[in-house]
Design brief:
The protein has helices spanning 12-29, 45-54, 105-115, and strands spanning 4-10, 35-41, 60-67, 80-83, 93-101, 121-129, 142-147, 152-153, 169-174, 187-189. With 191 residues, the protein is of the alpha/beta class. Helix 1 crosses helix 2. It starts with a strand and ends with a strand. It binds inosinic acid (IMP) and magnesium ion.
């Protein structure tokens, strides 16, 4: 029987501040662009909503849903498109908005898929980056926070569909393992 323990990693005030910084940077970089922000469902919907409302530019918005995890907490290593894109990306500047980059499997797949639609440019903005777990050579162009190899929930991120609604980000551990003992979670702003 699983009983989860949640340990606060990034409080909502810190998320807000960082999202504001990212929005200012993205607004500057895409001032004269035909920008399309593509939110990766479901995890990125909270981040995308907050980011969009802080931009001083007016991008188009679309969503794609990729399945790579199912209900497990480790990557299955393969991706399928659950909800395809709805708009034409030809000659557009695309910004993929992701909740988290873990192994990089999803981003690698998504990048190839979006590039096949003939956009002018493709960049990625990830709220969280577990860069120590990368198995593919990919890195976000915009990153909220670099975090350790810990499973996190809240602010759109789930575990088996639970915890998405939490306004802060927490490290989730299985109560049975006792793995959190003495181990504080850490997060630092990404590049
Ligand atoms: P990747 O393909 O291994 O990079 O995994 C990326 C996807 O896995 C993310 O978009 C998330 O949906 C999910 N994921 C990875 N790590 C976590 C986590 O710590 N909490 C919740 N979801 C995660
Ligand atoms: Mg995701």
């Amino acid at each position: 029987m699983h009983e989860h323990t949640l340990k606060l990693l990034i409080p909502k005030e810190k998320i807000e501040h960082r999202v504001q910084q990212l929005a200012e940077q993205i607004s500057r970089d895409y001032q004269d662009s035909r920008l399309v922000c593509i939110g990766v469902l479901k995890g990125a919907f909270v981040f995308l909503a907050d980011l969009l409302r802080r931009l001083s530019i007016t991008p188009m918005v679309d969503f794609i849903q990729i399945s790579s995890y199912g209900a497990a907490t480790s990557s299955s290593g393969s991706c399928t498109i659950v909800k395809p894109l709805g708009c034409d990306l030809t000659s557009k500047d695309v910004l993929i908005v992701e909740d988290i980059i873990d192994t990089g499997t999803t981003f690698r797949y998504l990048g190839d898929h979006i590039r096949s639609k003939h956009p002018r440019s493709v960049k990625i903005c990830a709220l969280l980056d577990k860069q120590y777990r990368r198995t593919h050579d990919v890195a976000p162009d915009y990153c909220g926070f670099v975090i350790n190899d810990e499973f996190v929930v809240g602010y759109g991120l789930d575990c088996g569909e639970a915890y998405r609604w939490l306004p802060d980000i927490y490290v989730l551990t299985d109560h049975d393992t006792g793995a959190t003992d003495g181990a504080e979670g850490t997060a630092r702003p990404g590049a």
